[in-house]
Amino acid sequence: MSKRSIEDMEVEAMVVEQVKRKKDKKEKKAKKDVVVENGVEDNVNGVTEEEGEEEVKDKRKRKKEKKDKKREKKERKAKEEEEEAIVAAEDAMDLDARETPEAQPQPEKLSKEERRAAKKAAKEAKKNAKKEAYAKPNRNASLPPDTPAPQVTYSTPAGPPTVSSGYTESAELTALPKSTIDEFLTEHAIAITDPHDSNLRPITSFSYLPSNSFDFTGFTSPTPIQAATWPFTLSGYDCIGVAETGSGKTLAFAVPAIRHIIALKASQKSSKGVRAVVVSPTRELAMQIYDSMEEYSKEARLSTVCVYGGVPKDEQRAKLKRADIVVATPGRLNDLIDEGSADLSNVSYLVLDEADRMLDKGFEEDIKRIIRAIPSPTRQTLMFTATWPQSVRKLASTFMNSPTKITIGDRDDLRANVRIAQTVEVIDQHAKESRLLALLKQHQSDSQRDDKILVFCLYKKEATRVEGFLRSRGLRVASIHGDLSQAQRTMALAQFKEGKCPLLIATDVAARGLDIPKVKLVINVTFPLTIEDYVHRIGRTGRAGADGMAYTFFTEHDKAHSGALVNVLKAAGQPVPEALLKFGTTVKKKEHAAYGAFYRSTDGTKTSKKIKFAD
Ligand SMILES: Nc1ncnc2c1ncn2[C@@H]1O[C@H](COP(=O)(O)OP(=O)(O)OP(=O)(O)O)[C@@H](O)[C@H]1O
């Protein structure tokens, strides 16, 4: 036999062996499959068939337990996510939606983690808000979230208001010569657009108010916005009041609110239930409005509750049961409406403070939901602000019935308070911190040591960094922004107000409405997202007739705002730096999120005409 044939035989034997092994394996597998299919494991380990059944049962049990655990874990995770979403929604709604980094242009690079967290929070907040909008158990629950609130249609001009506190002009006011009234209107550049032709005169003295229980000690006379709006708001008309920052708009809506409730209580048998709601964009502003409401309604023994996020709900729920007035941030108020703790079905007086902010895309949906919870036929709606961009006017008009529009100063164009000296410095991004330090040294040294300075940043992380930088340089500094707990925010603001800490670093949560006494200087380290926010930020100084000062760092990143800023500076008679002009003077048209590029600006008061006073 040749060597080759032996090798061939060996190969052949190997192949036969392999084929046999494969066949055995196949048979074994087929047998196992049949057994498993019949519910009995193969007796491979030499156990009896009975023992095999036990093992199967055990295995099934273990499998079921594993499955249950998995399901529980999934449910727990879903619940946690839901809770997180509520917090995120509150953050977006109550604090300032603009603090969510991905919602804004990014002048600075955020870390991957920050971006991911922000994206997740925003996504969940959106999902949650949508879910809640549809789940809302009130009388308009069937309306999808984008449906405008139901309207009462009045003939034009509108008929008499449904609820009025029974305002009658005082005899002394009526007796004043028309020229005195005209002088007052001209001196304060008051424009009244009254679709009702009601010929109501401004209440130029507190003594012309209907008999009241208000203590105006410390004030000599009503401010122009108070004088001009009171006759209309006291008469029960819807009203838009636009006046500069720090001009007393809070009392402009607080006084009629209190009179309104007193009148209702006197005329109705049942005096229970919330009658007035004031909505504000931030918790701190809500608390400030609440303090004013409390002070001025004390005599009338009305009960007010402040409803805002970031704190437990129990106390708010309890107070809501006996409240006449609710001052609220939108997120928490909607929460309490949804769970049935806040009943707005008796409300007939609604105020949107900082109305343009309340109607912009961050809050629009929340406001619609609140409005749906209030019966529209009896609702008197008031909107107050220092800035009234075209982009929100159409939306505002859908919530109002033939409103009287009152503006102090030429406010159809954006106007900053003229008593604020504005300085804009075009600067390199990297030079900001050293320039800030130099400004603080200049304005807070020696005898000026305790002068209050408010520094604005755009992002929470930026505020934290600036605070750390200034503290490392030995400055006394506090901060307020959305990354802090409510207790920390409240404490920082109190310390700044009381002068215990004269330097406050803030994001735009502090831009609107806050009335902090004697803020000497506002510094904008990073330009805000909108020109309106710029006007509100610098408006934290120069309040109630005082002078103020503002410094703004302007970089290449902010060039989209150069045209609008140039206009604001020019309108207030402030110097416009050459370097700013180089960025261009074109003003970009602001588009409303709901209408996008197709938005056509329409003033809701188009059919009205300027008020004429009779002799
Ligand atoms: N009639 C008045 N006379 C003098 N001061 C007043 C009068 N009414 C209100 N004030 C004071 O003016 C200051 C500013 O008022 P308020 O906070 O209501 O301004 P605002 O117009 O709402 O400002 P912002 O636009 O910033 O929200 C407050 O300290 C308030 O006490």
What's the SSE blueprint?
Blueprint: H1 3-37, H2 49-95, H3 112-135, H4 171-175, H5 178-187, E1 190-193, H6 224-234, E2 239-242, H7 249-267, E3 276-279, H8 283-297, E4 304-307, H9 314-320, E5 325-328, H10 330-338, E6 349-353, H11 355-359, H12 364-372, E7 380-385, H13 390-398, E8 404-408, E9 420-426, H14 432-443, E10 452-456, H15 460-472, E11 478-480, H16 486-497, E12 503-506, E13 519-524, H17 531-538, E14 548-554, H18 562-571, H19 578-581
Parallel strand pairs: 2-7, 2-8, 3-5, 3-6, 4-5, 6-7, 9-14, 10-12, 10-13, 11-12, 13-14
Antiparallel strand pairs: 1-8
Helix pairs in contact: 2-3, 6-7, 7-8, 10-12
The protein binds adenosine-5'-triphosphate.
Describe the structure.
The protein is of the alpha/beta class. Among the domains are: 171-408, P-loop containing nucleotide triphosphate hydrolases (Rossmann fold), CATH 3.40.50; 420-582, 3-Layer(aba) Sandwich (Rossmann fold), CATH 3.40.50. 43% of the residues lie in helices and 11% in strands. The chain contains 19 helices and 14 strands. The strands form 2 sheets. Strands 1-8-2-7-6-3-5-4 form an 8-stranded mixed sheet. A 6-stranded parallel sheet has the order 9-14-13-10-12-11, sandwiched between helices. Adenosine-5'-triphosphate (ATP) is lined by residues 219, 222-223, 226, 245-251, 386, 513, 515, 539, 543-544. Residues 435-584 form the Helicase C-terminal domain.
